[in-house]
Amino acid sequence: MAEKSDVNAKWDACLDLSVRRFVYSSLAGAFAGLLLFRTPVTRRASIAFGAGVGIGSAYADCSRIFDGSAAKLVPPKTTSSAPEELQPPNSLSNPSQVC
Question: Which UniProt keywords apply (predicted)?
Protein backbone atom coordinates (compact mmCIF):
# COMPACT_ATOMS: atom_id res chain seq x y z
CA MET A 1 0.00 0.00 0.00
CA ALA A 2 2.94 2.32 0.61
CA GLU A 3 3.97 1.96 -3.03
CA LYS A 4 0.55 3.13 -4.24
CA SER A 5 0.55 6.19 -2.00
CA ASP A 6 4.07 6.99 -3.22
CA VAL A 7 2.85 6.95 -6.85
CA ASN A 8 -0.10 9.14 -5.88
CA ALA A 9 2.28 11.60 -4.23
CA LYS A 10 4.42 11.64 -7.36
CA TRP A 11 1.39 12.33 -9.55
CA ASP A 12 0.29 15.13 -7.23
CA ALA A 13 3.75 16.68 -7.31
CA CYS A 14 3.91 16.45 -11.10
CA LEU A 15 0.46 17.94 -11.58
CA ASP A 16 1.27 20.81 -9.23
CA LEU A 17 4.62 21.40 -10.94
CA SER A 18 3.08 21.29 -14.42
CA VAL A 19 0.30 23.75 -13.65
CA ARG A 20 2.62 26.20 -11.92
CA ARG A 21 5.24 26.10 -14.67
CA PHE A 22 2.60 26.44 -17.41
CA VAL A 23 0.98 29.47 -15.76
CA TYR A 24 4.20 31.23 -14.76
CA SER A 25 5.84 30.70 -18.15
CA SER A 26 2.71 31.87 -19.96
CA LEU A 27 2.64 35.00 -17.83
CA ALA A 28 6.32 35.61 -18.51
CA GLY A 29 5.66 35.18 -22.23
CA ALA A 30 2.74 37.61 -22.06
CA PHE A 31 4.84 40.19 -20.24
CA ALA A 32 7.71 39.79 -22.72
CA GLY A 33 5.22 40.02 -25.59
CA LEU A 34 3.82 43.27 -24.27
CA LEU A 35 7.29 44.75 -23.90
CA LEU A 36 8.85 43.54 -27.12
CA PHE A 37 6.15 43.12 -29.77
CA ARG A 38 3.45 45.33 -31.29
CA THR A 39 1.21 42.99 -33.25
CA PRO A 40 -1.22 40.64 -31.52
CA VAL A 41 0.04 37.67 -33.51
CA THR A 42 3.60 37.98 -32.20
CA ARG A 43 2.30 38.55 -28.68
CA ARG A 44 0.27 35.35 -28.88
CA ALA A 45 3.30 33.53 -30.23
CA SER A 46 5.32 34.79 -27.26
CA ILE A 47 2.69 33.45 -24.88
CA ALA A 48 2.62 30.10 -26.69
CA PHE A 49 6.40 29.87 -26.59
CA GLY A 50 6.38 30.56 -22.84
CA ALA A 51 3.70 27.93 -22.30
CA GLY A 52 5.72 25.41 -24.31
CA VAL A 53 8.85 26.11 -22.29
CA GLY A 54 6.88 25.65 -19.07
CA ILE A 55 5.33 22.37 -20.15
CA GLY A 56 8.64 21.08 -21.47
CA SER A 57 10.51 21.83 -18.27
CA ALA A 58 7.70 20.32 -16.20
CA TYR A 59 7.78 17.18 -18.34
CA ALA A 60 11.53 16.85 -17.86
CA ASP A 61 11.24 17.22 -14.09
CA CYS A 62 8.30 14.83 -13.87
CA SER A 63 10.22 12.19 -15.79
CA ARG A 64 13.03 12.60 -13.25
CA ILE A 65 10.55 12.24 -10.39
CA PHE A 66 9.10 9.01 -11.77
CA ASP A 67 12.36 7.49 -13.00
CA GLY A 68 14.35 8.50 -9.96
CA SER A 69 17.31 9.93 -11.84
CA ALA A 70 18.05 12.38 -14.59
CA ALA A 71 18.91 11.19 -18.06
CA LYS A 72 22.65 11.40 -18.49
CA LEU A 73 24.27 11.84 -21.86
CA VAL A 74 27.20 9.52 -22.29
CA PRO A 75 30.06 10.72 -24.47
CA PRO A 76 30.92 8.44 -27.38
CA LYS A 77 33.66 5.89 -26.83
CA THR A 78 36.99 6.80 -28.29
CA THR A 79 39.42 4.19 -29.43
CA SER A 80 43.08 4.43 -28.53
CA SER A 81 44.30 3.84 -32.07
CA ALA A 82 42.95 5.46 -35.22
CA PRO A 83 42.45 3.47 -38.42
CA GLU A 84 45.49 3.33 -40.67
CA GLU A 85 44.03 5.60 -43.34
CA LEU A 86 43.47 8.34 -40.76
CA GLN A 87 46.95 8.20 -39.20
CA PRO A 88 49.47 10.75 -40.50
CA PRO A 89 52.42 9.32 -42.42
CA ASN A 90 55.57 8.85 -40.39
CA SER A 91 58.21 11.05 -42.02
CA LEU A 92 61.08 9.61 -39.98
CA SER A 93 60.61 6.08 -41.27
CA ASN A 94 60.82 7.22 -44.90
CA PRO A 95 64.18 9.03 -45.46
CA SER A 96 63.37 9.92 -49.08
CA GLN A 97 60.81 12.52 -47.94
CA VAL A 98 63.22 14.41 -45.67
CA CYS A 99 64.17 17.80 -47.16
Answer: Membrane, Mitochondrion, Mitochondrion inner membrane, Transmembrane, Transmembrane helix
